[in-house]
Design goal:
Three copies of one chain form a homotrimer.
Chain A: H1 2-16, E1 20-25, H2 33-44, E2 49-54, H3 62-72, E3 81-85, E4 96-101, E5 104-109, E6 123-128, H4 144-157, E7 183-186, E8 189-197, E9 203-208, H5 209-217, E10 223-228, E11 231-234, E12 248-252, E13 257-262, H6 267-271, E14 278-284
Parallel strand pairs in A: 1-2, 1-3, 3-5
Antiparallel strand pairs in A: 4-5, 4-6, 7-8, 8-9, 8-14, 9-13, 10-11, 10-14, 12-13
Helix pairs in contact in A: 2-4
């Protein structure tokens, strides 16, 4: 009898506690801030697996954080706790939210970073995090990543029900931010924006494959043209290498959105593009 | 009988070996140096948990390393091994030190990086690391991070008593560096320096809350003014968001020291500040 | 009976599954790409240990990747899976290779990154990775790191025989790139190149200790001189600290190759050196 329980204890403790904690912050990796959060996490849950999604968001980059978490979380196993600390309001009366969706838990300040996560119907419990039993003591006014997010996230990763963290919060009360969405210009054209530029200089827009399919559906044309500043690109390529080196192309990128790229080159520099610039997609009649 | 031992073996090996190793280096993350250290650590202790505190110290940044380790280590669980490799003297006759304090172990070159760690009375064993049984073989002249610090740290994380690493070293013999400390200008004023600037542009000084309380205690005034170059700030704020965006403020930061910041802005750029510049705090009479 | 099996199950599953996955990419750490790969890896193998060797290769830096993996892999434990994603041809018909060597497994696009790994005689199985049972579904055209490399690497780390991934590939068919090698100028001199410059500004050449021993062997001289642009350095130093601060020196670095460095300074800036520049070593007669 004893042995069986002990067995189960080892096995269950070991496997259950092995959940993943992902981190998205604007702390950078020059300073000790992200490392300290990990120290706190391991103090609470020595079996956690911590994944840095990024610490290099631009400071106070709430929109960027909203995109990064939305395009990342579903590649993590169920049970993952995602901690997002982009928090210019730290220490003020902004709330901290714990939210369940599709077996993932999100822990973030209530400043709009969860806007895209809220954009569908699988939202479970939403809690306002207030129970200081799970915080470091004392809590500083300037580093809640260390004092609240890290220990609370670690407790959740050990199996704590988020309902123990504070009162429920109505989903409608969560702060949302305006995320630029493409405009339908006509049945044949849609206008979006460059919403981020990655390390390769690829220009990532907010125009989805779905948006492009829509204008193709309503048009007799079956080709598209992509226009960004003085750049005109004809049609979508299957991959970066499908044009000659240093030549521009458009692809549906790994996030599912239209990207403008240069094969083995940097579209940002070669095309002189900036974040926020508009990008138009329109159908063209075959000649 | 056999089974019981086997049980215990799994459990103890698993739980004991799960200790944390933190890394502070100036290796950067462009090159393979930090990754190779981790390969060596896992070869010795496959159950280690490795936390990067930072690899982006300025090259040979001994003072910066001294601050980073002092403000980080106590957020890690007891038993953590902290490896600090900022080591311009690598391969020379500088010693390598293993030092115990409050159930943490520090492994570092004897060049002053442990100066702040030595600043209180809980120092345990101090060892000069010389026992090459725990080194890679051969030991290079230029990369002791890989050849000595990584394998020795991994052995300690598996439970090796640091006394097996070499002869004891008198605490007084450890090299210390001059860390700039604030000067008491009068009963009403203290003068310190900007000792680091973080990714957000926050100006972190060496003036502690304690220093400020001291001048308030001896003064009839109950307000302070902070002066840095042409910048004058009245009083301490509770958090960054307690002034309007782009406005300057002073707070006690997460390290426990006075910081000058700009809400949702970069104090370094906006105030034109440099590391090393002096910062004065003085009491002011209420008008 | 049952218990014994269960025991063994826990123990074997736990210890076997604990293998290491190393990552070398040009994804940077600004974007979520590397973090997403880790999410996918942990979804397949929750017990994996992931080590970032570097994500900061220059974009499409195939030669640099070839050096980094060759100088890193042997510091990792046997059984490590090394994933290298520097892949400008992603989505084209370039193959993906899984290759065994000395109990390590390498997973990389067939674009030359494994050139230096192929340079000796311990190559085991070589497989063309084609079995989509181990891929994410669907596979995108632009992010095989996420859709193929991460899940395949994770399955290998759980013990999957690489022969299940696709047909064998002849070693001769693997794409190799020209890696610059030193030229023997005479019995007394060898000419190489600066092949990388690390974060410290150290100039790392492709001239090995072996090359230098060769010219010393055939010469009556027993001293060497190193010439790079206008810089002349007499003899090899034992370590960086063996000359005065800010003075130039030459050492055999941690990769086993000749490096030109400046003690506590940056040789790249001080000597005005560039990657690719030639470096000559010749014997000199004692005067």
């Amino acid at each position: 009898m004893y042995r069986r329980n002990f067995f189960e204890y080892i096995a269950s403790d070991f496997y259950n506690a092995m959940s993943i904690i992902s981190l998205i912050t604007d702390f950078g990796t020059e300073d000790e801030y992200a490392g300290i959060m990990k120290g706190v996490i391991y103090t609470v849950n020595p079996s956690a697996r911590i994944v840095d999604i990024t610490h290099n968001l631009e400071p106070q980059g709430i929109i960027q954080a909203a995109y990064v978490i939305a395009s990342s979380y579903h590649y993590f196993p169920p049970g993952t706790v995602h901690i997002i600390v982009v928090d210019p309001g730290v220490g003020s009366n902004r709330a901290i939210i714990a939210l369940e969706k599709n077996d993932h838990v999100f822990l973030a300040p209530d400043n709009g970073v969860l806007t895209l996560i809220l954009k569908d119907d699988h939202i479970g419990a939403v809690i306002r995090v207030e129970n200081s039993d799970f915080f470091l003591n004392p809590v500083s006014r300037t580093f809640h990543g260390r004092d609240i997010f890290a220990p609370v996230g670690a407790h959740i990763s050990k199996g704590l029900n988020i309902k123990k963290l504070g009162p429920p919060l109505s989903r409608d009360k969560i702060k949302q931010i305006d995320i630029p969405v493409p405009k339908i210009l006509s049945k044949y054209a849609v206008m979006g924006n460059i919403i981020s530029i990655d390390r390769f200089g690829n220009l990532i827009t907010n125009i989805s494959l779905h948006d492009i399919e829509n204008i193709l559906k309503t048009s007799s044309a079956n080709k598209i043209e992509i226009i960004a500043g003085k750049t005109r690109i004809s049609g979508l390529s299957m991959n970066y290498a499908s044009v000659r080196p240093q030549q521009q192309l458009a692809v549906i990128g790994s996030r599912g959105y239209l990207e403008i790229a240069v094969n083995r080159g940097n579209a940002k520099y070669i095309l002189g593009a900036q974040k926020g610039e508009s990008v138009k997609v329109r159908t063209v009649k075959p000649e």
